[in-house]
C-alpha cells in the first residue's frame, strides 16, 4: 500500500499541472445552527480603528458570535477588584457588543489575565503573550470571583447575556497545573453565577483540541475530569457547569478536524456525565502568527478559500458558533489576520464571510463531494438555491498535523513522546525516505502510519495544484442567476490594500487635524470638549465622551464628530463595494440539471439558482 501511495504522489508531482475534476451532489437537510455561517470575530486589544470599522463589520449580517478578551484594557489595569465596574464603564467596545447582541449575536467575554495584585507569581518575565504576573495562577479565589461578578453585572446592564469563557489557551498561557485552571474556573463560576444564576460558563479554550499538559495528559479530558469532581456548594452545584465547550484551531485541515473534535467532545461529555453542550470554535484562522513559509495565506485569496472551507466543515460537523481571529489586523508586522486591515480596508476573508452569510438565513442542505479539496454547502430560501463551494488545498503543515491527530487523541502519552522530536526532523521524515526519528518501536510504527496517511492526502492535493473542473448536479433544471468568485484574479491584493490604507490614513489625519482646530476654537474651558479631544487622540473614537456628556455639549460636538468620521466611513464603504463588484462573474444560459465551472486550488464560489 505504501509503495502505491508513493507512486501516486510522485506521479502527481511529476505532472503538476494535471487538471482534476470534482462532482458535487445535493444531499439531505442539515439540522444545525445556521448562525455558525454568520460572521463572528474576536480581538485581543481593542483596535484603534474600531469606530471606523464597526459599520463594515455590522454590514456582514446579523447573528454570529463575537469574542472580546478583557486582559489588557481591564484586567491588567486593575489595582483592586472593586475598580472593575469603573474600567468596564469606559470599555471602548461596549456599544459595539450591545448592538451585536441586539442584532441576535452571541457574545463571549474572555477573562484571560491575572491582575498584578492577584498574582501568585508577580514576576515580570515574559510568559506566552504577556508578562509573567498576567499569566500567573490567582492568589485569591474570592477576589477573582468578585471581578467575574462585576463583569457579568456590567454586561447584563447593557442588555448583553455573555458567555463567560474562563481564560484563553490555558494549556500554554496559564502557568501552573491543570488543577490551577480548575480552581480558576470554579472561582469564575462562583462570581459569575452570583451576578446571574443563568450565566453560561465556557472552557477550556485550549489552543488546539489536542493540547497536552506538561506530563502528557490531554488538557481537554483533564478539564472534564476535574470539573466533574469539583462542587460549588455556595451555588448548590455538585460539579462545575460546562455550558459551552470552546476550542481553537490553526493549521488544521477543515473538513476532517472539526468533525473529529465534535465526536471527541461527545465522547468526553458522556464519559464524565455531562449533557452534550453547544460547541464554539472561539478562535481560528489558517495560521496563528507570522512568518508563514507558504506566504501571506491569511491576508490574501487563500484566506478566503480557507474561511469558506472552514465554515462548511463546521456547519456539517454541528459546531454551534465560531469566532474568526480576528476582526481587524492586530498591528504586528506581517500579521494580516483580520477581515479588515488596520485602516479598515476589507481583505479577501471579509468577502468570504459576506458570501457565506447568504446561506445563514436559509434551510441548509448537505452537499456531497467526491473530492477532499472541493467542499460545498447549500441553502434553500424563497425559491432560490444558494450553493457555497470552497476549493482549498491544505498546506504541508496541515497535512502533517492531520496525519498525527488521531494518535494525539487515542494515545496522548505516545503523542507527547513524539512532540519532543525537533520539528525539522519530523518534517524531513514525512517528506523524505529516511528512518523514523525515534528508536522506540511503538513510536516508529506510529510515525510510519502517519507518513503513509500524509502521502495519501498529499497525492490528492497535488492533482489540484492547477485547479480543475467542478460539476454541480442539481435536483431539477435550474438557471444560474448569480455567480461570485474569490480567487487569485478577483481578490484584493496585498499591495492594493497597502495603497488604499495609505490613502485612508492620510484622509483620516487631515480630518482629525480639522476637527482639532474646531475643538480649539470652542475653547479649552469645557471639560467635555477636553474629554472628547483626548478620546480622539487616544482611540480615534469620541463616542464614549459623547455618550456621557449633557445634551448642550453634545449639540456643539455632534457636527464636529460627524464631520471627521462620516467621510472616512463613506470611503471605506465605497472601497468595499468596488471590491465586491469585482467578484461578480457573467452568467447566462438556459436552465440545466448540471452546472459546470472551473475552480482554482484556492477559490470560493457562491452560486445562486432559480427555477
What secondary-structure arrangement, pairings included, does this model have?
Elements: H1 2-15, E1 20-29, E2 42-43, H2 50-58, E3 65-69, H3 84-89, H4 94-102, E4 106-111, E5 126-127, E6 130-131, H5 141-157, E7 163-166, H6 170-173, H7 178-195, E8 200-206, H8 219-228, E9 244-250, H9 254-271, E10 279-285, H10 301-317, E11 321-324, H11 348-356, E12 363-369, E13 374-381, E14 384-392, H12 396-410, H13 412-418, H14 423-431, H15 441-462, E15 468-486, H16 494-522, H17 527-539, H18 543-548, H19 551-581, E16 592-599, E17 602-610
Parallel strand pairs: 1-15, 2-3, 3-4, 4-7, 7-8, 8-9, 9-10, 10-11
Antiparallel strand pairs: 1-12, 5-6, 12-13, 13-14, 14-17, 15-16, 15-17
Helix pairs in contact: 1-15, 2-19, 5-7, 7-8, 9-10, 9-12, 10-11, 12-13, 12-15, 16-17, 16-19
Oligomeric status: single chain
Total separate domains: 3
Strand content: 15-25%
Average pLDDT over all residues: 92
Categorize the overall geometry.
globular
Instruction: Quickly give the structural class.
Output: alpha/beta
User: Main β-sheet: number of strands, strand sense, barrel status?
Assistant: 8 strands, parallel
The CATH architecture designation of the largest domain is: Alpha-Beta Barrel
CATH class of the largest domain, named Alpha Beta
Q: From the alpha-carbon coordinates, what is the Rg to the nearest angstrom?
A: 25 Å
DSSP helix fraction: 40-55%
